[in-house]
Design a protein that fits this description.
Layout lengths: L1 H23 L4 H31 L2 H26 L4 H11 L1
Helix pairs in contact: 1-2, 2-3
Length: 103
């Protein structure tokens, strides 16, 4: 199971790179660097959390598992929303809808 998780993590990392690369490289240099740093941090925190949850759940540490779910997944969701906002996946759709209604 551990080998599969490592393989899955690598595949998803490459897929994420291909997904955000066009949007991340279109902005200013500082914003591009910030986007890539946030992506790597988000990805690392997410997979550290998944592995921590998996290890504690397999051993039977219920309290550590529930704490890890709350902590790691909460941080991961917050970073994902910030990254999506910086990349333009959140917020710009509403502006387009409002401008089309006004025209």
């Amino acid at each position: 199971m551990g080998t599969f998780l490592v393989f899955l993590a690598g595949v998803l990392f490459l897929a994420g790179l291909l997904f955000i690369k066009p949007r991340a490289n279109t902005d200013k240099r500082w914003k591009t660097i910030l986007n890539w740093v946030l992506y790597v941090a988000w990805y690392a925190i997410t997979w550290m959390g998944i592995s921590f949850i998996y290890i504690n759940a397999s051993v039977g540490h219920v309290k550590a598992t529930s704490t890890a779910i709350f902590l790691f997944l909460g941080i991961s969701v917050v970073l994902a929303v910030v990254l999506a906002r910086l990349l333009g996946f959140l917020g710009k759709q509403q502006k387009k809808a409002n401008t089309s209604l006004e025209a």
